[in-house]
Amino acid sequence: MDIATPALQSLRIEMHFDEKPLSIGTGFIARGRNGMYLITNRHNVTGRDQHTGACLSPQSGIPNNVVIRYYKADSPGEFVSYREPLLTNGDPFWFEHPYLGPTADFVAVKVTNAPGAIIHPIDPASVGLPIKLAPAEPVSVIGFPFGLTGPGSLPIWATGFLASEPHLDYDGVPQILIDCRTRPGQSGSPVFAYRSTGSTHIEGGFGLNTYAGEVSRFIGIYSGRIRSDSDIGTVWKASAIAELLESLPE
After folding, report:
1. Is the Cβ–Cβ distance between 82 and 98 less than 8 Å?
2. pTM exceeds 0.85
3. pLDDT tens, 148-179?
């Protein structure tokens, strides 16, 4: 069974207060200096709106742990779930960007418990084939809208288009804009330029390059829409996530 690689890299996560589920989101695994880390949105782990600080849960709860659902090793279509702490004595158990700090809507949570899981990490410092990025090029947000899954309990692909110049920063921070119809639950999704086969333009190249199989480029992490009545959303760049991972302690 051929499954697109980015689909195996997107993980469904649930934020809990003790055993009580509060919300559902998306994340992915990246390798840090001393192990694996869950990368997801900061607002997922704080349980608060990134801009207003308002509580996001209808139960007004703040999560103190996250349950990560992994693909089970040697068992396609089966999963194992493990819980990781988010707070220790009330203090955050996650890492933020070294200079953007809490203003950046992404964090790294150390993975301490994943026996029997097969992990497909994303390397934000080596994003894959340098597919040329430009406004109006298609990109995919790969995650779990409303906590729902696709066939085989795999993530759902929401595909839209780059909506800003990808080599410039939106709002003075390392973000780009996309035009994509996304929904709650997709916060923290990895965003890819994915081409299943055929020809594509390569950055710095001339003309089309032809490939027989899938090619992809990791772009960053989806954060949310700029307004509730708009399909324009923000993506924190892969380079910023790489900076966070580089700053982690050994």
Report:
1. no
2. yes
3. 998 878 999 999 999 999 999 999 999 999 99
